Structure formats: C-alpha cells, structure tokens
Amino acid sequence: MPGVGDPSSREILMQAILLHALAVGVPNPAPQAPPGLAGDANTILGWGKWGVLICGVAGLLISGGKMAIGHRNRSTLAADGATGIPWVIGGLSLVAASAAIVAVFL
User: Fold this and answer.
1) Where are the domains of the chain?
2) Using CB atoms within 10 A of its CB, is residue 56 exposed (0-12), middle (13-18) or buried (19+)?
C-alpha cells in the first residue's frame, strides 16, 4: 500500500515534463504581425493614443474648471478637481510608457 507522501505517476510525469522544459528551454520566438496587418494594427494603436490624449486634455481642463469654480464657497468641488489631476497625469503617463512596459514582458 502506497504511503501518504508517495507521489502518483501523474505527479512524476509532470515533474519530468517540467525538468525537460527547463533543460531544453521553452521556445521564445519574436513577436511578428500576421501578413498585411502590421499597418492596420499601427493605425488602430495610433487612434487609441490620440483618443487618450484628447481624454487627458479634457480631464485636465475639467479638473482645472472644478478648481476655478470651487475656489469660492465650494471647497469640495475644488478638492475634487485637485485630486483629479494626479489621476489624469497617471493615466497619461501609463499610456506614454505602455509600449516600454509591454516590451519588458516580451
């Protein structure tokens, strides 16, 4: 009768596969766009960046407007505008660094 700590045949097989993969190395081909789609993908990414840029400008304008309106007797509105600015800048920074962030994982 097998003991409680004895590995099953499935566990042994999985360990063997893992050790083989580590020894041989997992293939890591470079990313490559399907034929004819590289230009279209770049266009869509460009549109996305443009849209985020417009949203970022609008976010900063709205935050500034809240601060301007809220400076007189509406301190909560001014505080909401001030707290929105770091979020907008953080979002724009993330979009600006997105290609570099993804490149780290490829």
Assistant:
1) 47-106
2) middle
